[in-house]
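assembly run, all chains below
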Amino acid sequence: MKDRLLRRLARELLGDDEVWSRIDVVGDIALIHRKFNYPIENLRLLANEMLKRMKGVKAVFAIEPGTEGKYRLRRLIHLAGENRTATIYKEHGCVYKVDVQKAFVVPRLSGEHLRIAELVQPWETVFNMFAGVGPFSILIAKRKGAKVYSVDVNPLAYELMVENVKLNGVEDKVIPILGDSADVSYWLRGSVDRVLMPLPELAPSYLDYALLSLRYPGWLHLYLHVLVRWGERPKLSALRVGRRLLESKCSSFEIRGVRLVRTVGPRIAQVVVDALLNKCEFKPRLRSAEGFGPLSHLLGTPWDW
Ligand SMILES: C[S@@+](CC[C@H](N)C(=O)[O-])C[C@H]1O[C@@H](n2cnc3c(N)ncnc32)[C@H](O)[C@@H]1O
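ok done. output:
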């Protein structure tokens, strides 16, 4: 319904048959992912019309391509309506306070949040290495009652996650942690049943930390960006890349599923590989004492164990 309206508006106003597919609506804020050099005036025209025609939309922003800085924030340009970036987002019966400027929210991952939550068993301990404002962690706790260590390095995402944990009444199940998930993996070593790595840009280089935290056999959900070869289906690309990565660390594992999450560029796909790992060899690089940040004051550094 929403997609059909957006498609029609974009076609009527701009003669554009594609821009509608780059629009996300988070709560009452609409976000248009702007292609490099796409005329901002055209987007403003579309934004004003969206405000008139879409009852629930109160603000519209353009998102510039790419992310900036350590926290991978996106640059927004205000197009129409209220100039505010905080809103309430509802998904699968959970409520989230979000800020489209400060903490990453991906409504297109909604189906993935539910799929993963359904795989978790109530007795499991889960490590969410890149939790954002908490949509995977909170849904898992709410649906399955499992315990989740939910980590984010961005203080703004962490603060929202803490609020969201309370809002959804899962304080006894979700443990929000502000820090680098590499550091947290040392304290969790050998203790978790399932690891989520929902950040394709970092997942391959953080694989050793995920393997360190697992109790074997254990589950891994590895999100990757893969280049889809000519004539190859994205799922096959996922299998090829996922298998190669895991073979470099694990002598015994089973890939139980591969899924296309979304297409992120011409021939680039975001995929997820679900694997049951039985035996892995890993050598996480020890990080410097300063690298352990605020956690080292609470828990000591790995050299203190
Ligand atoms: C793609 S977002 C998470 C999206 C979220 N899981 C969802 O489903 O909406 C990635 C998050 O990882 C966080 N992040 C980046 N590097 C990190 C690190 N080294 N340790 C922990 N979190 C990190 C970012 O701050 C960001 O909030």
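The chain has two domains: 2-84, 107-304.

Residues 71-72, 103-106, 109, 130-132, 135-136, 151-154, 157, 180-181, 198-199, 202 surround S-adenosylmethionine (CB under 6 Å).

not gonna interpret more than that til we talk
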